Amino acid sequence: MAGEAQDDCLFCKIVAGTIPATIVRETETTVAFRDINPQAPTHVLVIPKAHHKDAAALAAAAPELAADVLRETQAVADGEKLDSYRIVFNTGTGAGQTVWHAHAHVLGGRGLDWPPG
Ligand code: 5GP
Ligand code: ZN
Q1: For labelling, which of 32, 45, 60, 99 has a CA lying 20 to 30 Å from the CA of 13?
Q2: pLDDT at position 90, please?
Q3: Is residue 86 a contact partner of residue 112, using CB atoms and an 8 Å limit?
Q4: Average pLDDT, whole number, for the chain?
Q5: Protein residues with CB under 6 Å of any ligand 1 atom
């Protein structure tokens, strides 16, 4: 059911603390932690604690929670002292989504090309 922790979900396990992560911020509804395979000097993932499979599902089922995630990306960027940064929600296999628990990538600390690859 949307929002319920999934036994086979990596990010639900990070929320539960059963898989370790370098957590940079936590709120009642969200967790922000460093990506294990960083693509920029700052590469932090912001996730809702509740399980939703991607950003679209999150926005549809829980728009307030989607807003919490977006607010937290800003808080991460402030905490990392980034003037410029990129927020990415890979959505679907063709866009590179590999973990099926909604997450925002916050990338910064270097120049970021456009269009992305
Ligand atoms: P996606 O490809 O789904 O947009 O992003 C998933 C991200 O999760 C990838 O950037 C990947 O490096 C990161 N990731 C995968 N497994 C782990 C893990 O166990 N811990 C952390 N911190 N990040 C992970
Ligand atoms: Zn999950």
Answers
A1: 60
A2: 98
A3: yes
A4: 97
A5: 10, 19, 21, 33-37, 90, 96-99
